[in-house]
Amino acid sequence: MLVYYFTQTIVSGVIALFEITMLPSTGIYYLLTNNVVILCYGVALIIIHASRSFLNRYLNRLRNNYFLTEWLFGLAFLPIAYFLYYTQYYRRLMLPPVLPESAPPVVNYLVYLAICIGYFAIVLIAMELTSRYLANRDRADAAEYRLANLAKYTNQLEVMTDDLRRFRHDYQNILYSLNSALETNNLDYAKRALNHLTRATQRNIKVPTGIIGPLKNIKDSGIKAVTYNKISIAMDKGLNLEIEIADPIQLTQTLQQVDTIRIITILFDNAVRAAVKSEKKLVNFSLYENQFAQFIVVGNSTAQEKVDLNQLSNIAHTVTIGRNHHLGLRNLQIILARYPGASNDRSSNDHYFEQRIIIPKK
User: Fold this and answer.
1) Cα torsion for 217, 223, 226, 227, to the nearest 10°?
2) Cα–Cα distance between 232 and 90 in angstroms, integer?
3) Under DSSP, is residue 360 helix (H, G, I), strand (E, B) or coil?
4) Four-residue CA torsion sign, 106, 109, 112, 113
5) Who's near 351: CB < 8 A, 6+ residues apart?
6) How many CB atoms lie within 10 A of CB 161?
7) CA distance linking residue 88 with residue 11, whole number of Å
């Protein structure tokens, strides 16, 4: 409607100029006055089409993370909308007070048009600069966050390597002792060596190689770092983790990196939050692909026997302030809406809930 008011102002001003400079009986004046609505809609469509790429870029930069910024810029258009609306009915408002009363109507109209265009330009420039600044800041924060998580992941691998090296050394020494005991037929010493070997194996098997190891198949370092961070949080909460990434996978083939990170973060946070309250305290995470699509699957044990999937679907399409779980589901739907054919399949049964994100390959 704002664009329509603006175009109606332009068309009305042109008609007024023709009314002043030409006889009302001319064919052009008759054509304009009898097709004013069609002209207004036509010009409005042209403006909307021309500004669509700008607005899409603006919204993609904010990515629904800055609701207050979006609302404030939306409210910034209200004064000009109010001004445009009333000038259609009170033409005297089109006379800027800075111009003398003897100023020609053409000058009045051009000044009025300059005020409108200038206001639009100021707001649009502010939107562009603000969204660019927020997007750059988000990218910098995300890069720092991924770098920190990647450093933690690398440190964990180094700790695991050192532990395995020490275990290998102790293992070899015990095997030598066991071999010597058997050669000398010292069964008591052989039993003690074998028991020591068993205890050492049980102690070192606690190293989470089966959890951390599969992450090597995630080819994007940023996604790998964030995934490791979420896994670390789940381990710190004492949850039982099952990680399955059997084959190398490049998730950025189907998703932008920032969207992939947000999807994994939302799914993992919700899964951990629910698993902590359950009896089994289980979180399952897997990534895989076929020739048609890539799959992100996150499952978790639940306190209730079966989750109401219809209620979750309704929550995902509504705005709930102050509930991170609800807001996460809504953001997940917004992200997936950017990718044609992407879907979110949910299932729940026997105290277990699973979400499967399916993104078709391009």
Assistant:
1) -40
2) 66
3) strand
4) negative
5) 278, 279, 280, 301, 302, 303, 304, 305
6) 11
7) 11
Alpha helices in 63-104 (DSSP H): 67-75, 78-87
38-42, 51-55, 101-105: least confidently modelled range? 101-105
Token pair recorded at residue 72? 């404030």
SS3 call for 310: helix
How far apart, in whole angstroms, are the C-alpha atoms of residue 348 and residue 44?
48
Arithmetic mean of pLDDT over the chain = 77
Cβ–Cβ < 8 Å for 251, 220: yes
Which of 95, 80, 79 lies closest to 16 in space, CA to CA? 95
Q: Which of 225, 223, 167, 227 is nearest to 199 (CA)?
A: 167
Orientation of helix 105-183 relative to helix 257-276, angle to 10°: 60
> Phi/psi at 349 (nearest 5 deg)?
-170, 145
Q: Terminus-to-terminus CA distance in the chain, angstroms? A: 37
Q: Is pLDDT of 72 > 80?
A: yes
Helices (H), 184-208: 187-204
Q: Hey, what are 45's tokens?
A: 């469509």
At residue 102, the 3 state secondary structure works out as coil
| Rg, Å, the chain Cα set | 33
Q: How confident is the model at residue 353 (pLDDT cuts 50, 70, 90)?
A: very high
Distance (Å, rounded) from C-alpha 139 to C-alpha 261?
12
**4 against 359, higher pLDDT:** 359
* Closest C-alpha to 159, from 223, 208, 202, 216: 208
Name the DSSP letter for residue 318.
S
Per DSSP (E only), the strands in the chain are 240-244, 282-289, 293-301, 343-348, 352-360
Q: What pLDDT, on the 0 to 100 scale, is given for residue 321?
A: 40
| Backbone phi, psi, residue 20, to 5° | -85, -45
What is the DSSP annotation of 247-280? S-B-GGGTS-HHHHHHHHHHHHHHHHHHHHTSSS
